[in-house]
User: Fold this.
Amino acid sequence: MKILFCTSEAWPLIKTGGLADVCGSLPKALHALGEDVRLVLPAYPEVLERCVGLTSLCELTLTGADAPVEILAGHLSGSDIVLYLVNSPQHFRRPGNPYVREDGRDWPDNAQRFALFARAIVELAQDRAQAGWAPDLVHCNDWQTGLVPALLTREAPRPATLFSIHNLSYQGLFPATTFQQLKLPKALWSMHALEFHGKLSFIKGGIACADQLSTVSPTYAQEIQGSAFGCGLEGLLQYRADDLTGILNGIDTDTWNPATDPFIEQRYDVHSLHRKATNKAALQRDHGLAQDTRPLLLGHIGRLVEQKGVDLILDMLDKLFQHPVQLVVLGSGDLALENRLREAAACYPQQLSVHIGYNEQLAHRIEAGADCLLMPSRYEPCGLNQLYSLAYGTVPIVHRTGGLADSVVDLTPVTARTYSATGFSFDKDTPQTILETCLRALDYYAQPNRIDWWKLIITGMKKDFSWPASAARYQALYREMCGEETDQPRKLG
Ligand code: ADP
Assistant:
């Protein structure tokens, strides 16, 4: 099948979070399964720098661009996957984060930028961009590509459309006036398409108009149909429940593998787990923590936003640090959270090390060196760090939600006896339950006989969260979709 895979970020070209990990590795896994999958991204400066051998396919005249928009073609680094870049300097050639300015606020023209991206994708999807390639299916990801399924409803014939929700809270919401400014087809201003309580919603375009929907874990697929996690879209998602599939993300084992990881102090695998201790010692040494094997060393990696629950960790630190526990935190985001973390680190120099910023190497070193990875996310569509930590023999401690619930088996008397436990999880996201669960992990770790701890680690390491299984599920979904009648425009509503 010919699949056009549309995303606003893909590792290693550009990354702000898990979306990039998925969009960098899922196409590779689909390609390995024999699919002709091609990627389309905006031509941000970092992406242009990291791509070699780009050629110009065509120049498109698109609504919303002052100058012709160039479509560039090349290959995703290290593979023969074809990559298309939408090159509009007016929209994408600016430094820094793809979505926000240096002060953390959204680029003021995000609606214009991603509407233009969608319009360029439609030209590629309809084979009007000199690519000589007409996809059978267009796979869109998150709000930045939400207009694509909506605009494609206006085309006939057209490819099938799949819209994947990686995080429902980021919706691409803009004032109604933006709808007119973008000169979008009037028929799309409807509660069955882009209108959401009087506003323009990019994500709603994907959810309402795509032929099929997916999200990144089975539990999140259920959760978003309820008011607690549905972000106001739960009614629409219930309506579309028969078209919604939850497929757990995989991990790229070329990048996240303790046996080959170039970033970590000492490589290891399930047969040489004793070497993991060297990584713990290195993490303690490099970050000024007491160098001692006895404390339970926790790690936390992620964007510092309310979703990830760092405030909940901060609220129980005083009690946690009365026990032999250390914590290394890596993250950036909310300035108030960054400051609270810095202040806490000053109070507990032997037990807490905080790194504000984005650091790929340190993320790997924490995964390898920590005993446990703490993820108290209030909600978590899939979560990748707990999958990395399972692969690295680092026991996850997680809130039982979304993909965390689907990937971590809590230690209970039964799961301990059957050797099926892989971590520790809790139901209520409160500082007290997080504390209790960390202490449960500490008790288990501190048993005189470490055999039970090793068993817990080994069970997790043996779990296979690599991409082939998940990619095969996407492939099956694509197949099912392409068997359907898709040459008629989808009726709105
Ligand atoms: P989300 O997509 O919500 O940010 P995920 O757990 O799905 O969360 O993916 C986060 C990805 O971003 C992981 O690969 C993680 O290692 C990485 N990451 C997040 N913050 C940082 C950081 N400060 N430094 C390095 N990597 C980070």
